[in-house]
Amino acid sequence: PAVMEATRRHVQQSGNKKKSEQKEQPAQWGRAWEVDWFSLISVLGLLSFAPFIVFYFVMACDQYQCSLSQPLVQLLHGETTLLSIWERTASFSWSAARIYSVWVAFQVFLYMCIPDITHKIIPGYVGGVQDGARTPAGLINKYEINGLQCWLITHALWFANAYHFHWFSPTIIFDNWIPLMWCANILGYSVSTFAFVKAYLFPTNSEDCKFTGNLIYDYMMGIEFNPRIGKWFDFKLFFNGRPGIVAWTLINLSYMAKQQELYGHVTNSMILVNVLQAIYVLDFFWNEAWYLKTIDICHDHFGWYLGWGDCVWLPYLYTLQGLYLVYHPVQLSNPHALAVLLLGLVGYYVFRSTNHQKDLFRRSNGSCSIWGRKPTYIECSYRSSDGGVHRSKLLTSGFWGVARHFNYTGDLMGSLAYCAACGFGHILPYFYIIYMTILLVHRCIRDEHRCSSKYGKDWKRYTDEVPHRLIPGLF
């Protein structure tokens, strides 16, 4: 969801001008300290409408064959009522609650109790204990990176069950999709509320908390930067990656199994969606250590935006293509299928290569080769709230010289491929590319606003060197 954030903090005047300037610089780094009316209205809108959007899309598939207009038309013509739609919707069930509880508990167990060994077995994979980015308070947290291991164990058990043990049907997720949605909402609201209360009563690090004085905004955008329980259970890392993203590929597999059960075959469109999205998910876990340097971990505080979003929005709306294909099996022509595959693979190449260039540049501190040349960069400095001055480099070579967020451009190409695999019969599967465009354009803007506050005049030098955000010559 896109939220326009205010980014100025009121700094009281003091007699010592230098000391005041030291406080003002780091205060602007990160989430807003004050809330304007536009931000508050946006937050209220998201809190009100985001859960409704999830319900509406899932209900439309369940009751109206994925038509987004038919429920509205019937309501306007008096052919149905909101009450009748609600009564036809599957309700919370204890069987779904047991399934969901076992799922979340299993992911907590894998995350907390099985240290990563895959980095010792798989060449090139970075796992185990890793350092995160420096927080606004100047801290560097440690993380146990074991997402790839969790994904592999989970999917090994899934396939072992499907082909040997038969403990449950591979269609179990689809068959309980709406009751599971209520369970996901319970977890999303519970963890968001717990994080909100925790920030007041027992924050992990009080210096990395931000209070605006507006309870609604603080609940939505979060107060604590890195809420944790104990030394290793990090809320942001767990809920951003597990259980939602581990479930993403399982959800698609359940859709595939349901298509096989209903029609006796699996369409090439369903295979494309499963393959392309599995590449994205595996890439996420393969590069989980790199993820520690992204905006979600480095800038966002943990509130409803991440807590509920990771539990409900991600698994329910990021998988709409597979859900649509259960109701509308699409067999693509060979040229169409090939075009979708190429678009997805090229998008992934741009996305991964762009991120790899930045990661290589960071790890080597600029002592590397990008596109066969020594990289160019902008030297910059920033100040954390502990008064420390830190230096950084902003890359201007390779894809990062083409546009400031060219990784997002590749991401959007992949997102379009997922949608195009569903044909052109309905708008519903195209929600993902519409949403991702809004999200990533807004993320460009808020990320650059933070960078401008963090780096000051050095950021202006960087934007002069690389003038475009996403598409050279356009944006």
From TrEMBL:
Membrane protein topology class: Multi-pass membrane protein
Pathways per UniProt: Steroid biosynthesis; cholesterol biosynthesis
Presence of the UniProt keyword Transmembrane helix in the record: yes
Family matches, as PANTHER family: 7-DEHYDROCHOLESTEROL REDUCTASE, DELTA(14)-STEROL REDUCTASE
Function text: Catalyzes the last step of the cholesterol synthesis pathway, which transforms cholesta-5,7-dien-3beta-ol (7-dehydrocholesterol,7-DHC) into cholesterol by reducing the C7-C8 double bond of its sterol core. Can also metabolize cholesta-5,7,24-trien-3beta-ol (7-dehydrodemosterol, 7-DHD) to desmosterol, which is then metabolized by the Delta(24)-sterol reductase (DHCR24) to cholesterol.
GO terms classed as biological process: brassinosteroid biosynthetic process; cholesterol biosynthetic process
Documented EC number(s): 1.3.1.21
Transmembrane segments: 37-58, 262-282, 302-320, 332-351, 415-441
Organism encoding this protein: Tetraodon nigroviridis
GO function terms (MF aspect): 7-dehydrocholesterol reductase activity
Family: Belongs to the ERG4/ERG24 family.
Name this protein carries in UniProt: 7-dehydrocholesterol reductase
Top-level EC class as recorded in UniProt: oxidoreductase
Classification lineage: Eukaryota, Metazoa, Chordata, Craniata, Vertebrata
Keyword annotations: Cholesterol biosynthesis, Cholesterol metabolism, Endoplasmic reticulum, Lipid biosynthesis, Lipid metabolism, Membrane, NADP, Oxidoreductase, Steroid biosynthesis, Steroid metabolism, Sterol biosynthesis, Sterol metabolism, Transmembrane, Transmembrane helix
InterPro entries: ERG24_DHCR-like, Sterol_reductase_CS
The keyword Cell inner membrane appears for this protein: no
